[in-house]
Design brief:
Number of strands: 13
CATH topology of the largest domain: ABC transporter involved in vitamin B12 uptake, BtuC
Shape: extended
Distance between the termini: 145 Å
CATH class of the largest domain: Mainly Alpha
CATH architecture of the largest domain: Orthogonal Bundle
Strand order of the largest sheet: 4-3-2-1-5
Radius of gyration: 42 Å
Structural class: alpha+beta
Number of domains: 4
Largest sheet: 5 strands, antiparallel
Helix content: 55-70%
Length: 666
């Protein structure tokens, strides 16, 4: 009977349980129902209240981590309020609010969950949470994980920039987690790069670090080298037995094989493993401290000026136990022999240091190659400037044989023409396009006037021509000072020429230099066309080859001379506009280029366009090479370059590209 009763109760209990499963459950009766997000946030804040109120940099990290790791949607906003000093604690009940100061001592309080105003609060019942700069920085680090996945790309990019500026181990995992969801390709590559760098520095997985080091092996960025260098930092370890167990040994030093006895003993003294050498100041102090009746250890004071007597007096103090004995050479040798000297890497992982060393070696090799490329680009840029400055002089000097010392002033006139045009036309792009033909026209006219008024009367009189053009040079400089003053005038380049073409962290060249190079190539092509395809070019070549024969064939040499001089002067004016874009426009601008222009013409070959180009390249590369060997003294570099050119002319007096035919013998 009892068994039947128990079975019946069991069946009845099962039916009741089944019915209960089908009934709706009240929230107030369900213990598994989660609290609202706002309540959870308030509970979290109250649980960390003591740490938050204290805001001590030494103890605040657990509170920051608790909020950041809570998974609550309001966590980011809460951290921002805390960082911005807008978080308030109501003392009466321990509740937290966002507060806005109204007037006097009252604050308007806003609910952290809904953002709705909940009334006013008196200053006496509120405590403003004011984190110091250190705590704000820690909060900022915690905010990065939210900012890395923010919908606003500007915020995401700023977060990556913040990590780059201040890398930390805490940023590694959030950064790595944000990469798969990144929608912008450029920003994703930036994140991947920073993730690789953080992995090298902070990841605990050696395999992951090795992969990251290998991935960055071809990168020449300064930040890559800055990340790898600490892995190869080392410190000297000295021990009688050997290095500590498990130490990552970089090298063991042998006396007189990379480590001198003096350096070895100095290292022992630094670590208090051997007595210090006796210094003169120490000896002097000991002698002064033990003067008795005009003597020191029996030696009269008058005799202490003698080094031997000073040593005798000090030895007497040592014998009496009043001074420290200096270590002998044998004692120093014995001390060194007792120890072994090692360099130990700060990084404990051998595989990591080996990989870092191999990667740094490859990077150093690539850096040298790229530095050579960068130097070559600089040399080509300088050569293009010298070519523009010298090509006009090459034409006049080659055709007319006139040593024009005022050629630099035509360059200066072109630069000032560009400045005047920019004062009239504020748009820098249009003004430069107008300035180039304007400078040509101004200096072309000035060149023709100079040839008609002065040069034509001095043909075949080189000394008088040199003196006359030198006087004109001084006069033009003074005229420029009177008109424009002595202050440098700006010749501003268009905005699209700002900046530089950056290949990597080693190789770069400014857009202005690229534009000048293109301009030089354009003028090379134009001059070749004029010389080879036009009547003026034909007549110019004829006069250059044989002046008398050209005149007998009906060519007017005076007209050719005039137009040629004007053409050379006009090209100098265009060179002035180009040079003024990156150099100071002053009355002395031409002085900086007249010597190089003459050297370019003479080295390249008088009267040859290709020779002028070759001379500009030779001088540009020579100057940059010498400056690279002697970077601290550019004046000495120019002096060395002139010496090299003088030596070159001794072996090839007609230049790189010498004229052929009758002109070669003139």
């Amino acid at each position: 009977m009892t068994r039947f009763l128990a079975a019946g109760l069991f069946v009845l209990w099962g039916c009741v349980a089944a019915i209960a499963q089908t009934l709706p459950q009240s929230d107030s009766l369900s213990s598994d129902t989660l609290a609202p997000s706002g309540a959870a946030l308030l509970t979290l804040l109250q649980s960390q209240s003591e740490l938050i109120v204290a805001s001590s940099r030494r103890t605040i990290q657990p509170a920051i981590d608790a909020i950041a790791d809570s998974g609550l949607a309001e966590a980011q906003e809460l951290l921002q309020l805390w960082q911005g000093k807008k978080l308030l604690l109501r003392k009466s009940d321990g509740s937290f609010f966002r507060g806005e100061k109204i007037t006097g001592g009252e604050y308007e309080l806003f609910d952290l969950d809904t953002g709705v105003s909940v009334g006013m609060g008196d200053k006496t019942d509120l405590k403003q949470i004011k984190p110091n700069s250190g705590v704000r920085a820690m909060i900022g680090t915690a905010l990065v994980r939210f900012q890395l996945e923010d919908p606003d790309i500007a915020i995401r990019r700023a977060a990556v920039t913040s990590i780059k500026r201040d890398p930390s181990a805490a940023a590694l995992l959030p950064l790595r987690a944000s990469i798969p969801g990144e929608t912008d390709d450029d920003l994703r590559r930036l994140k991947q790069r920073q993730e690789r760098l953080l992995t090298i520095r902070f990841d605990l997985d050696t395999v992951a670090r090795l992969e990251a080091i290998n991935d960055m092996s071809g990168d020449l960025g300064v930040d890559v080298r800055a990340t790898l260098n600490p892995l190869l930092s080392r410190a000297m370890h000295i021990d009688t037995n050997g290095p500590p167990a498990g130490a990552n040994i970089a090298a063991e030093w042998r006396i007189d094989d990379g480590l001198t006895k003096a350096d070895a003993y100095a290292a022992l003294v630094e670590r208090d493993l051997a007595p210090a050498l006796l210094q003169q100041d120490e000896m002097k102090s000991a002698l002064e401290a033990h003067i008795v009746a005009g003597r020191v250890a029996g030696v009269p004071l008058a005799q202490l000026s003698d080094p031997a007597m000073r040593q005798k007096a000090y030895d007497g103090l040592v014998a009496e136990g009043l001074a420290r004995p200096a270590p002998t050479l044998q004692e120093m040798a014995d001390a060194i022999a007792r120890y072994r000297f090692f360099d130990i890497y700060d990084e404990p992982a051998v595989d990591v240091t080996n990989a870092a060393a191999a990667t740094m070696a490859r990077i150093d090799t690539d850096v040298v190659v790229n530095q050579a490329a960068d130097l070559a680009l600089d040399a080509i840029s300088l050569a293009s400037i010298y070519f523009l400055a010298a090509i006009g002089l090459a034409i006049t000097f080659g055709v007319m044989g006139v040593i024009n010392m005022a050629h630099g002033e035509f360059i200066m006139m072109g630069a000032y023409t560009g400045y005047v045009v920019q004062q009239i036309i504020p748009d820098h792009t249009i003004s430069i396009l107008v300035a180039i033909p304007a400078a040509f026209a101004v200096t072309f006219g000035a060149g023709i006037a100079m040839e008609r008024l002065v040069i034509r009367w001095l043909y075949n009189r080189p000394l008088e021509t040199l003196l006359a053009t030198f006087g004109i040079s001084i006069a033009l400089q003074q005229l420029a000072k009177n008109v424009f003053g002595t202050q440098a005038r700006p010749l501003t380049s268009p905005g699209w020429l700002d900046g530089a073409w950056v290949v990597n962290d080693v190789v770069s060249i400014s857009y202005i230099r690229i534009a000048i190079f293109v301009l030089a190539l354009g003028f090379l092509a134009l001059l070749l066309f004029i010389i080879r395809r036009t009547r003026l070019g034909l007549e110019t070549r004829a006069v250059t080859q044989n002046r008398s024969m050209a005149a007998s064939m009906g060519i007017n040499p005076d007209r050719v001379n005039m137009l040629t001089f004007g053409l050379g002067s006009g090209i100098a004016g265009i060179a002035g506009v180009a040079i003024g874009l990156f150099a100071k426009v002053t009355s002395e601008l031409g002085n900086d280029y007249i010597v190089q222009s003459f050297m370019t013409v003479v080295v390249g070959g008088v009267g040859s366009i290709w020779g002028t180009l070759a001379g500009a390249v030779m001088i540009g590369f020579s100057q940059k090479g010498i400056e690279w060997l002697n970077p601290s003294n550019t004046l000495a570099a120019q002096t060395y370059m002139i010496v090299l050119i003088i030596i070159f002319i001794q072996f090839r007096p007609r230049g790189i590209v010498a004229l052929r035919g009758r002109a070669a013998g003139d």
